[in-house]
């Protein structure tokens, strides 16, 4: 068996997957860059090999082909990115693959992903009706009685442009990693707050043209004052790895200042029954994408440790370096990439 990887050459994911192939005694995977695919280059897969679809990552050339030229850190352009990316996915050969291209297209549209999960009975935060800008958002919040919501770009990733919005009579606060500059909003590695109506309206209206998905803000378990959630990797239908993400801000993403938490402590707080219920929710979310060997599920744990909801399902959510699988499970002692390679070999 040999893998052909469509990804970003030099990306950490691609390197870790190649290492997993070598450790399994397989040939070095053939790597094809997204830039060539986006330009229309044909992807050929040798008989008997497996196509692995990976993220475009931080490949600036690919980003310009997806969103157009400009600062890669800028917020916005998600709709153009999505149209170009899904168009390229449809041009890939329909061969044995680690990901179904239609699954990826749904996972990269937060509105469609939320609807699919909800239709399957997977617990998700309630979504507000579609909004086209700040004024409409405030109107919908008033109609539904919501004072705290998460506003997410429909096609964003890595918390790009995500806004945790809180309102109260005479007060407003938007927490986000989007920084205001002279030429618009840009992603930064620092979470910040906007606390005037004008600033928040400018931010939401800047995000709105690419499409928005708005959800109720579910209060999360916060031991020691740090909100937490789980990123759970599901391989071949079975949860295999999990990392606890904690943060003093509403954004738990590790690249935004979040830190890894103690998984054993979380399991202890949940109890064995709660832990198994949590993993069952993740398995049910993954089952909504049956053509994908692996997904990464963002699992929200509510205050009181009894309520669960799926925040997102990630097509490329397996970058958990240094983490091995659950003891007693099929990935015990191995990383996420080795688990996937072995799953393909069985």
Automatic annotation (TrEMBL):
Mind listing the UniProt keywords for this protein, alphabetically? ATP-binding, Nucleotide-binding
Write out the GO biological process terms: SOS response
Domain ATP-grasp residue range list: 114-345
Query: Which GO terms of the molecular function aspect are on file?
Result: ATP binding; metal ion binding; ribosomal S6-glutamic acid ligase activity
Q: A GO CC term? A: cytoplasm
Q: Does the keyword ATP-binding apply?
A: yes
What top-level branch of life does the organism fall under? Answer: Bacteria
Tell me the protein's name.
ATP-grasp domain-containing protein
Q: Which organism is it from?
A: Actinomadura macrotermitis
Q: What is the lineage of its organism?
A: Bacteria, Bacillati, Actinomycetota, Actinomycetes, Streptosporangiales
């Amino acid at each position: 068996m040999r893998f052909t990887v469509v990804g970003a050459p030099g990306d950490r994911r691609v390197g870790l997957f190649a290492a997993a192939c070598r450790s399994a005694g397989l040939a070095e995977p053939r790597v094809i860059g997204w830039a060539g695919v986006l330009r229309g280059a044909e992807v050929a897969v040798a008989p008997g090999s497996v196509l692995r679809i990976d993220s475009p990552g931080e490949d600036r050339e690919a980003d310009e082909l997806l969103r157009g030229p400009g600062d890669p850190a800028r917020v916005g352009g998600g709709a153009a990115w999505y149209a170009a990316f899904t168009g390229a996915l449809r041009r890939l050969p329909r061969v044995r693959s680690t990901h179904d291209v239609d699954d990826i297209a749904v996972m990269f549209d937060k509105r469609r992903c939320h609807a699919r999960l909800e239709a399957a009975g997977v617990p998700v935060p309630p979504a507000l009706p579609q909004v086209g800008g700040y004024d409409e958002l405030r109107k919908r919040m008033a109609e539904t009685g919501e004072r705290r919501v998460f506003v997410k770009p429909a096609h964003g990733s890595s918390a790009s442009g995500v806004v945790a919005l809180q309102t109260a009579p005479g007060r407003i606060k938007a927490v986000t990693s989007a920084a205001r500059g002279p030429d618009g909003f840009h992603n930064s590695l620092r979470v910040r707050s906007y606390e005037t109506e004008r600033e928040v309206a400018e931010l939401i209206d800047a995000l709105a043209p690419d499409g928005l998905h708005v959800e109720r803000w579910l209060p999360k378990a916060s031991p020691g004052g740090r909100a937490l959630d789980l990123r759970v990797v599901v391989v071949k239908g079975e949860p295999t790895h999990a990392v606890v993400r904690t943060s003093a801000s509403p954004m738990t993403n590790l690249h935004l200042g979040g830190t890894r938490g103690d998984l054993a402590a979380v399991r202890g707080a949940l109890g064995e029954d709660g832990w198994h219920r949590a993993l069952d929710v993740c398995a049910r979310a993954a089952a909504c994408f049956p053509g994908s060997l692996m997904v990464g599920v963002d699992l929200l744990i509510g205050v009181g440790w009894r309520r669960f909801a799926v925040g997102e399902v990630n097509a490329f959510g397996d970058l958990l370096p240094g983490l091995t699988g659950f003891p007693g499970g099929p990935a015990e002692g191995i990383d996420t990439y080795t688990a996937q390679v072995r799953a393909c070999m069985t």
